[in-house]
Amino acid sequence: MVEKKSDKTFGAVGTVLFHLVLLVLLFVMGIKSIPMEEEGILVNFGDSPVGSGTSEPVRNMPSAPETTPPAAQPVPTSTPPSAAEPVKQRNITQDYEQTAAMTAEEKARQEAEKKRLAEAQKEYEEAQRQKRIEEEKRKAAEEAERQRLAEEQRKKEEMQRQAEAIRNATSQAFSKSNGSGTSEGETQGSGNQGYVTGDPSSNSRTGTGLGSSGNSFSLAGRSLSGSLPRPEYNLQEEGIVVVEITVDKNGVVTDAQPILKGTTTQNSYLWRAAKAAALKARFNSSASAPAYQKGTITYRFVLN
Questions:
Q1: Which of 63, 158, 244, 255 is the most exposed place for a label (fewest CB within 10 A)?
Q2: Angle CA(282)–CA(286)–CA(292) in degrees, nearest 5?
Q3: Average pLDDT over residues 138-153
Q4: Are 196 and 288 in contact (CB under 8 A)?
Q5: Does residue 99 sit within a domain?
Q6: Pairwise CA distance, residues 15 & 250, whole Å
Q7: CB atoms < 10 A from the CB of 281, how many?
Q8: How far from the centroid of its chain's Cα atoms is residue 21's Cα?
Q9: Contact in structure between 224 and 283 (CB atoms under 8 Å)
Q10: How many domains does the chain have?
Q11: Is residue 196 helix, strand or coil?
Q12: Domain membership flag for residue 267
């Protein structure tokens, strides 16, 4: 079928007309569908709900508020991330190292201070201990001295008591048997003339009553080798000193100590003289004798 040129024209005109009619319909129907707004009442602009007069007062326009321009902010300089990161890391590392060094130094200082305080405390405690030891020694020495003085006083009182007992016994031995008097002798005055180591039955009123020396010893089964040594003294004092001796098998006196029993004097000088003389004594040697044998030597000191 061959299409005619008139058909193309007719089709184009029809299409244009159809679209025009469609546009008119849309325009008309669209305007009618738009709702109409209500009209309002014009109101005079004012600044108060009351007023009077017919002329509008001139209003001053409010001035624009003054604004202070903002201060210019420093423009941050951007650093490439690749360059900023090593610097930050280095600063952190340096701060850490400094802090670690300060901590180690502070710790060492604290340890040194603790050590110094401990040594000071130790020295103080040692000084206090030495002080206590010295104080204990001093108290012990004072106590020992007090006991020594008390012992000496006790010995002195004991010797006085024994001397008094010996004097009383001697006085009773030398008194008259009939008890008719309190004196005996050939001289003037009262008293029992004689010597305390003499014989109460003797009529002699002078001398020691025991020979030239008046000294004696007692050692069972042993005899003197030579004579009994005499004490050397130059003191005008009289009395009896009994010395306990220790003799070995060879007859040597190995020890000598004055004793209270039988002693009538408390003079330390006479005691030392009697001891020195007793140590010089020698006795016979005896194989059957004890290794160490005890005995006594009695020394009678008289006035020259």
A1: 63
A2: 70
A3: 90
A4: no
A5: yes
A6: 181
A7: 23
A8: 126
A9: yes
A10: 2
A11: coil
A12: yes
pLDDT tens-digit map of 103-145: 888 889 999 999 999 999 999 999 999 999 999 999 999 999 8
Helix, strand and coil in the chain, % to nearest 5: 45, 10, 45
The verdict on residue 96 lying in a domain is yes
Helix (H) or strand (E) holding 257: strand 253-259
pLDDT tier for residue 177 given thresholds of 50, 70 and 90: very low
Which range of residues forms the domain containing residue 220? 216-301
Amino acid, res. 35: P
Centroid of chain to Cα 243: 53
- The better pLDDT of the pair 70, 112 is held by 112
What is the distance between the alpha carbons of residues 74 and 251, in angstroms, rounded to a whole number?
A: 127
As a whole number, mean pLDDT of residues 254-278 equals: 93
Tokens of 230: 């005499």
* Cα–chain center distance at 180: 80
Q: Determine the average pLDDT of the residues in 2-20.
A: 80
Token pair 């001295």: residue: 145
